[in-house]
Amino acid sequence: NAQGDIGLANLGSAERWGLTARGTLHLAPIVPGARLELTANWRDSRFDDPLTGETRTLTYFTPLTGNLGFRQDLEEAALAWGVRAVFREQDKWYFVDERSFRYRGTTYSAFVETTRFIGLKTRLEVENIGERRNGDTREFFQPVRRAPLQSYQVSRRADGAWIKLTLSRQF
After folding, report:
1. CB 3.0-4.6 Å disulfide test: which of 40, 48, 73, 86 passes with 33?
2. What does residue 63 show for φ and ψ, rounded to 5 degrees?
3. Closest among 50, 63, 134 to 92, alpha carbons compared
4. What per-residue confidence (pLDDT) applies to 5?
5. Is the overall model pTM greater than 0.70, yes or no?
6. Which conformational region is residue 28 in: left (phi greater than 0), alpha (psi within -120 to 50 degrees), or beta?
């Protein structure tokens, strides 16, 4: 644009820090061949926005994500099954004339896999059990984000479940 603001959405220096934790708890004494797996990511950032003069997080930055899964391997039956929940906090996006917030709800999945058929690993997975809720809120400013809010757009949707069949083999 004429004011030269077009390149200022993420121009400048920033600080970013975080912590990742991963753990596996083997449940073999209680449930043979079973384990719980947890991954959690916490991040934060600081950015002095040259467009607005405010301090904010970085664009496309998700502060909290993670997953929790249960898996049981039944070796004698050449079978495994499990469930998983994946969560993420709201993303924030900053553009020269727009600020957006994207929410992705928790997703749940379940699988069963086996190596019993002609040497192939066969995995059947159902993803997004319970229809994950998603949403976006977009705020528009003219000519740039330091101007008053001009309009906004809100969208909400639920994604349906899907089924995935995977056949694999090492060569």
Report:
1. 73
2. -70, -35
3. 63
4. 54
5. yes
6. alpha
Would you state the structure tokens that stand for residue 3, as one six-digit string?
A: 């004011």
Distance in angstroms (rounded) separating the CA atoms of residues 109 and 128: 6
Is the dihedral angle over the CA atoms 7, 8, 10, 11 positive or is it negative? positive
Please tell me the distance from the alpha carbon of residue 152 to that of residue 144, in angstroms, as a whole number: 14
Low-confidence stretches of the chain (pLDDT beneath 50): 1-2
Q: Strands of 28-161 (E only): list them.
A: 34-48, 55-56, 64-74, 79-88, 91-95, 98-104, 107-117, 120-127, 133-141, 149-158
Structure-token pair, residue 108: 């749940």
Which tokens in the block code for residue 26?
């083997």
Q: Please, are residues 9 and 47 in contact by the beta-carbon 8 Å criterion? A: no
Question: Do the Cβ atoms of 116 and 163 come closer than 8 Å?
Answer: no
In this structure, what is the dihedral angle of CA atoms 170, 129, 82, 21, given to the nearest 10 degrees? Answer: 90
Contacts of 74 (CB under 8 A, 6+ apart): 32, 33, 80, 81
